[in-house]
Amino acid sequence: MTPTQLFLLGHPVAHSLSPVFQQAALDAAGLAVRYTARDTPPEALGETLRELAARRAAGNVTIPHKEAVAAACSRLTRVARQVGAVNTFWHDHAGALVGHNTDVVGARAAIDAVLAPGTQAHAPLRIAFLGAGGSAASVMVALAQFPNAALRIAARSPARADALVQRLGLNAIVAGDVMTAVEDADLVINTTPIGLRDDDMPAPPDALARHACVLDLVYKRGETAWVRACRARGHRAEDGLRMLVEQGAAAFECWFGVPPDRDAMWRVLEARRASPST
Length: 278
What we know:
Structural class: alpha/beta
CATH class of the largest domain: Alpha Beta
Radius of gyration: 19 Å
CATH architecture of the largest domain: 3-Layer(aba) Sandwich
Helix content: 25-40%
Strand content: 15-25%
Order of helices and strands: EHEHEHEHEEHEHEHEHEEHEHH
Largest sheet: 6 strands, mixed
Number of domains: 2
Number of helices: 11
CATH superfamily of the largest domain: Leucine Dehydrogenase, chain A, domain 1
Shape: globular
C-alpha cells in the first residue's frame, strides 16, 4: 500500500538527516506525505509498531531497533533475511508488516564511489572491517560484488565477529587487533560509532597502506576527524553520507514505486552543510 505517513524509528533520532532529505524528495515529487523522526526507546517499540500498523504507516529504522523490527515483521525480503536486520518497512494490503534492508544498496554505492580506479582489479581485494554489528552485516552482504575479496575483521567482541562470519558464510579472518586488520588493506571500512561524538579515530591513519581507500560509515557536519586525517595523508576517503542518501533513495522507491529526485535530496543537504546555524 502506498503510505500516507512515514516515520523514522530509533533512539536517539534527533541527529538524523533522514527527515531532511526524505522530506525534500517527497516535496519534489508532489506527495502530500510527512516524514517524521520518532524517538522510540526500546521498551516502547512494540506499542509503537502496533500503532503504526493501525495507521498502515511505513518508514525507516535505525539504531538500536534494526534487529528487533526484523523479528517483529510478518515477512522479510531476501536481503533483510540475509542481513538479519531491517532498516525499511511498510504494511501490505492485508496489514502485515514487511521488512526490507536498503543499507546494502547504500553500501554498494559508497564502496564503488570511494574505491580508486583499478582497485577492483586486485585479486583478491583486501578489505579491513572495523566492527561487527548490524551495519557491518549490511556492508559485508554488499561486498558480494567482490566474490574474491579477502576480509579481515577487528571487533570489540571477537565472538560476535566469528558468529557474523559464520552466519554470512564469508571468507574472512577475525583479526586480533585493529593494526593487524588494516595492514596492507586496499579498503578500510569503519562500521563502529567511533568518531560520531568526538574526534576519536577507529584506526591510526599512519597505520594504513599508502594506497588504502577509506570508508567511514559515521557521518556528521564537517566529516569525521578520521576521514579528514586520512584524506590529508593522500588516501581516498569518504564518510557515510552517500550511503545514507542511497539507502534512503532505495527506501523511497520501495514505498512509492518510483525513484526520488536525488538532486533535491543532495541540494537540501548541501544547503544545511553550508549554513553556520545547523
